[in-house]
Amino acid sequence: MLTMSVAALVLAACGVQRSSLPPPPAGVSGFVPLARLARYPEVYVGASLTTIGMLRRVGGVYALSGPGVRRRFEVYPSAVASRWQGRRVEVSGTIGVTFETGFELTLGRIVAPR
Predict the structure, then answer these.
(1) What domain range is 57 assigned to?
(2) Is 6 within a domain?
(3) Rounded CA gap, 43 and 56, in Å?
(4) Is 26 or 101 the better-scoring residue by pLDDT?
């Protein structure tokens, strides 16, 4: 009897949890502020999106950065990113994740922001 009560208590404590993460952009693409992307990057893996940030060379790679953003998003292909180094840019692409680099953005488009 006690075992059943403990099991019921454990199951009740587990409950059904809803994710506190924001939903990914609606549809196939969407604009996501870099700060939100940096805070919840796992939500956006596989999503095509647009964001704005400063493109900097960090070590041997190019990465997006912004005010208060600690997470680094490496930008590929490097040959395209290199032309925009040191500039504020609007980038569109797909978010991915690898064990080697962490979160990365594969460019579809890069322009000066409006």
Answers:
(1) 22-111
(2) no
(3) 24
(4) 101
